[in-house]
Amino acid sequence: MTDTDTATDTDPAPPRAARSGRKPRRGGDKVRKTSFTQALNSALDLAMAEHDEMFLIGEDIAEMGGDFGVTKGLWAKYGPERVRDTPLSEAAIIGTCAGAAMVGMRPVAEIMFADFLGECYDQIVNNVSKMHYMFDGQFTAPLVIRTACGGGFGGGPHHSQSVEGWFLNVPGIVIVAPSNPVDAKGLLLASIASDDPVLFLEHKALYRSRAEVPPDYYTTPLGAAAVAREGSDVTVVAAMRMVPMALAAAEKAAAEGVSVEVVDLRTIRPYDAATVLSSAAKTGRVVVANEAPKIGGLGSELSARISEECFSELRGPVVRVDGLDAPIPFSVPLEEVVLPDESDISAAIAAAARY
Questions:
Q1: Which of 182, 278, 265 is CA-nearest to residue 226?
Q2: 68 neighbors 94 (Cβ within 8 angstroms)
Q3: Catalytic-labelled residue, pool 51, 132, 158, 159
Q4: Which segments in the chain show pLDDT lower than 50?
Q5: Quick check: 238 and 262 in contact, CB under 8 A?
Q6: Cα–Cα distance between 186 and 188 in angstroms, integer?
Q7: Element containing residue 84 per DSSP (H, E)
Q8: Beta-carbon count within 10 A of 54 CB
Q9: Tens digits of per-residue pLDDT, 215-251?
Q10: Rounded to an integer, what distance in angstroms lies between the CA atom of residue 71 and that of residue 51?
Q11: Mean model confidence pLDDT for the chain
Q12: Is omega for the bond preceding 270 within 30 degrees of 0, making it cis?
């Protein structure tokens, strides 16, 4: 796994990464503490050097470097032809990317806030996701849509939503949701290399998280979950911000004699059912943690699947941790009531362990 600090216009361009069938190159730089944002920036920089057909497109992503700084320095390095600012029209951004992908380009779009995916929902659901199917494989959609999601910062109801549930019922779209800087870089590089359309969710609360990320080109496989912590008594299945919260709750549970296994989904659609079900069968007690509202979301899907396929191994019902069925308020104290946190996961682990 890999990365360096955010690229600047004075950084030398990295050598081209190994293409399929060749070994990825290994850099001589030391592994260093890197933020989630810097890891994404490094992935985009390496991919731009690797894929001549790749370009970035979005609102304020060029000279400004994006609202969260993810594209910082790339406009100066690769020029306005490959790092393109756009008007405030999400539908135009994704429509442009859909057409470009059909003719062999590999666009990476930034939708500033995930809530604005509603503005281009038709392009994603009715065009991008169906392209391969409708044209019988004659066209593909190697398109990545990066977007910032999630609450916890007082952004209010139009800048704080967890949107994965909007797309779970859409065949043809891949939904990627990293929880740490190492996976963020590897998953983004894998998403860019994929010929499938990818919705790449970046939880805003994770942007400042840091980890040792190597600087090389590497990929983390799409569709493969990770066991972030092994345990034997209770399984917690989570993604994005809920993963570090689950790990902290697992640490507290261990002090009370409860061994908790944490499964980080990494890809939400299609998720790694084999890893999830294997862990559920091993522990017999399961908690599903998801920031979105309970009805019709990721937690509902996981709970139903685990209950259906691990019924004989379960010692009790699957316990769900979700946000309240309410819009996200501007008030931070009220937001803390609406959104789940570490204490909610701890309570769920304790409830599951009692069976």
A1: 265
A2: no
A3: 159
A4: 1-28
A5: yes
A6: 6
A7: strand 83-85
A8: 20
A9: 999 999 999 999 999 999 999 999 999 999 999 999 9
A10: 16
A11: 91
A12: yes
User: What pLDDT sits at residue 30?
Assistant: 64
pTM value surpassing 0.85: yes
Q: Which residues pair with 323 in a beta bridge?
A: 293
- Tell me how many degrees the CA angle 349-178-65 measures, rounded to the nearest 5: 140
Burial 71-101 (b: 16+ CB within 10 A, else e): bbbbbbbbeeebbbebeeebeebbbbbbebb
**Separation CA 353–CA 344 (nearest Å):** 14
| Distance between first and last Cα of the chain | 38
Task: For residue 111, report the phi and psi dihedrals to the nearest 5 degrees.
Answer: -100, 115
Q: DSSP labels for 136-182?
A: TTSS----EEEEEE--SSS--TTS----HHHHTT-TT-EEE--SSHH
The answer to whether residue 159 is catalytic is yes
Amino acid present at 342: E
Task: Supply the pLDDT for residue 5.
Answer: 36
Spatial distance between the Cα atoms of 81 and 331, rounded to a whole number of angstroms: 41
Beta bridge partners of 287: 236, 319
Rounded CA separation 277/92 (Å): 40
DSSP of 172-241: T-EEE--SSHHHHHHHHHHHHH-SS-EEEEEEGGGTT-EEEE-SS-----TT--EEEE--SSEEEEE-TT
Q: How many angstroms separate the CA atoms of 231 and 219, rounded?
A: 27
CA dist 329 and 326 (Å) reads: 8
